[in-house]
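Students often ask why we bother encoding 3D structure as a string. The short answer is that it lets us treat folding as translation between two languages. Here is a chain of 64 residues written in the first language.
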Amino acid sequence: MKRVMVALLMLGLFSPALIGCSDKTGTTKKTTTTTPEGSTTKTEKTETKTSGDNPPAPATEPGK
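And here it is in the second language, the structure alphabet:
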């Protein structure tokens, strides 16, 4: 019984850390260049970083 409780406790502690870890927002751009010597593929990955404001804070006007 103790083993089952310990297994459930470990699963409960580690499951929130694993959820959503692989989801990253960004873009991937592939460029293929073909020449007489052969072809070259270049992949550029950019990750979008957010501050956590969703939606972003409203802009304030100067003087108000």
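Translate back mentally: The chain has a mean pLDDT of 77. Keep this in mind for the problem set.
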